[in-house]
Amino acid sequence: MTERQEGFVGPNPLIREKLVRDRIPESVSQGPPRTLGSRERASFLAAKVVEEAAELAEQILHVAEGGVSDGVLLEMADLLEVLDRVRSVFSLSPTQVKKTRKEKLRIRGGFESDRVLAVPAPLRRLANGTDVPLRSSLLVELARCRRADLAVAFIKEGAAASLLPALREALSRGAHIRILTTDYLGVTDPEALDLLSSLGEKREGKGIEIRCFLSAPSGEVFRGYHPKAYLFERENGRRIAFVGSSNLSNAALSESVEWNVFLRETDLADPVDQLSQEFGRIFASSRSVPVNPDFVSNYRARRKPPSWGQGLSDILGGSASPRPTPLQDEVLLSLAELRADGARRALAILATGLGKTYLAAFDCRGFSRVLFLAHRREILEQARETFFRVHPEKPASVVSEGEADVSGDLVFAQVQTLARPSRLLNIPPETFDYIVVDECHHAEAPSYRRILDHFRPKFVLGLTATPYRMDNGDIFALMDGHVVCRRTFIEGIRGGMLVPFHYFGLKDTVDYETIPWRGGRYDPEALERALTESRRAQETLRAFREHEGSKTVAFCVSRLHARLLAEFFSREGIAAGHLTGETPSGERREILRKFREGSLSILFVVDLLNEGVDIPEIDRVMLLRPTDSPTVFLQQIGRGLRLAPGKGHLTILDFIGNHKRAQYVLPVLAGREPEDGNWSQEASAVLRQYKAGTLSLPTGVHIDFEWEAIALLESRIFKSEPRRSALLTVYEDLWERLDHRPTLLETLLESETPPRVFLREFGCWQGMLEAIESERGRAVMDQAERHLFVEAGDFLGEIESTAMSRSYKMVVLKIWLGQEGGLARPLSLDDLVGGFREVFSDPEMRRDLGGDSPQGESSLETGGGKKKVRMSDLDHVTDRTLASFILRNPVNAWTGEGRQRKTPVFFRYESLTRLLIYTGKGAERERFREAVEERVEYRIREYFLGKTNS
């Protein structure tokens, strides 16, 4: 048997039994051998079949990655031996097997044609918490188990109550149930422990045992406890488990987005047995104490939970030393782990109201000087107040219009002011060791880039409330691909940190088909005229009077729109004001003061209050302009989702028309984002669920559409243009917005639809460009580009579509393009080694420099045979070893060595001269380098964005 190193790094004290060959020496065993009983033979044989089949599969993949084929032969021999034993145990003759195989071959054929079909998965392995909730599976297993072990970080009363009947029924059958939770952060409800304790005690191997893992017992160091695992042994003796993210709470069992994986004892290496052993070890440890009435009474007395049902101001309680919420604690731990791994930047995506600024204030403890960046003065003022509560001992200063003080330990800077060269260049790059970039989706702006490029902090934390890739440009890459958390407003509502909303979709009186559409947006002047008509103003007033709310913000399309509506409402006896991005700061503060105090009932705004300014008392928002993007829509409704005393919900009044971006509304309200960028398809799915009454929403959330608004939505969603034509429209809109033909990389970063969707539809990027010409009559390519595609189109298509488990193949091309002559000249192995060292000297690139194991190790042939080399420790890897690694990985992948390829090969490696040679066509053409470079840049960025999102 051959094995490749897999699994987690570290010692493995767990022992398991497995079926072995008759003459395997006893010396390899951790105990004396034994002979199977007849009843257990089937389960051990089944596990052995899975083990050997998995090892054969690993060897097949190993060869596909460039390895030798010896392992395939050895593992095939092992698998056939096990299958022969199965045949013998079940009294099947070789003749029977051969006859059955021959008959199936005659009827259904073999596997010579390499045919692939899309078929339903034979087993649902993932419970994602929405369409496949974990609760249903737990109830099924409790109904047929004889033993259950539940390990969870916390238990809430509602979840315990919902499982109580199933637990009681299982115990009545004689089941043995063990539950292990913790007192960490006081999140577990004592009422939940009371409920579970009421089920009785363990007697004679039956009944229920509940224990609590103490996070900080007297005289011992603190230790967290985070497992979420549910282990079951069925009546027939078979064992299964669910492992993932769900604790015992109603949200985790049936509402929140969760990932829980189903495991069986026949899975490779018997993970269920490993879980069972580890559960038993912790359950029996001195930290795990029995839960009885005395324990619950003591726990209730000392428990001080930071409640998800409170606002941040209540949680922080006005004390001089605020404490993080459970959510913030989780993110702070992840940030600490990232820094321990050498990360220098990270992005936190937290919905408005979940405490982004407090998170930054907590995380920067231990850093001496902090720079907080924002683009508006109001954001700086609020951030300064927050940081003062966490760091009252630290002096603070401000850089803004009229102020330029960088002397404080905490510096709050307006980006536009700090980015001026006359100011920025006078500040030493090492001044700050921690930088916070608030509303990080702005960080692609040149002013932000200038600041981040100038300073050399130890860590940069980006904060944003908008999770949508299409509107976030390249901020994922700007933050080195590290997304430390992603919490949506839907999760915030379910967790009690935000108020639920009542959404009303109202029919718009504006016919958007009559408004010119240019450059991916409506003509501003024509749109303004349509939205300022008297009829539209009357409908706005009617909606305001018909729906409840005391503090209202209405989002307008222009300064004129906001001013006219404020004047109209004032004439109707409603105290109204308006704010724009050009309102002087002093006047702006005065208007906001009146609004907060109740002197104004409604504010009509444009280019303001989308982000950053916190007025928790806002309980109604009016969306009086067509939706531009999911980000803007989310920012606007987010203004009213914060908790406030006496506020039960947010009212959202949205005018639904036949405008081109109507498809964003429904997915955002449901907390969804399409993976392939097809918002219309996602919107149609949500709309069907809404009409069928099956749309899953948090408690207290209501969505209501006027029937005319539903018809308008359907006209934009269900009756949209064919997919091919729609994609061409998306690309043309981006072209007009950028005012030049978008590259692959620009499409990745700026479009609502990623390039892979275009490539899947049109076969290649060239195919899409040709479709623009033939179907839209638009001049796209010049003669030189056409000739290039004729000669080198196959190679360019290979770059666009080649599989990438690592970045290495594109790095080879990147290095090659950097040398004189590009791919038209051979690339020496020495230059390739030097280029690899240069490219992977970047710490974030180096994280991708691993071999064929999760630990970044590679098995390489050396003078003394095979040895493990940690490639990520590049400074200690010799040129010879690195050359061997490069040959074995990207060079072999490009040249097709050691495997059968059905796609063309465009490279040859000459071992005598140590040269890599491009054997395709077109390398001499003037546009070749540019075309290859465009695709390489796109694939590298797409690869790292994919790692980030996963």
TrEMBL record:
InterPro entries: Helicase/UvrB_N, Helicase_ATP-bd, Helicase_C-like, Helicase_Restrict-Modif_Enz, MSMEG_1276-like_NTP-PPase_dom, P-loop_NTPase, PLD-like_dom, PLipase_D/transphosphatidylase. PROSITE patterns: HELICASE_ATP_BIND_1, HELICASE_CTER, PLD. Pfam families: Helicase_C (PF00271), PLDc_2 (PF13091), ResIII (PF04851). GO terms for cellular component: cytosol. One of its GO terms (molecular function) is ATP binding. Residues 337-485 form the Helicase ATP-binding domain. One of its GO terms (biological process) is phosphorus metabolic process. Residues 843-870 are annotated as: Disordered. Residues 536-691 form the Helicase C-terminal domain. Gene3D superfamilies: Endonuclease Chain A, P-loop containing nucleotide triphosphate hydrolases. Residues 221-252 form the PLD phosphodiesterase domain. This is Type III restriction enzyme, res subunit.
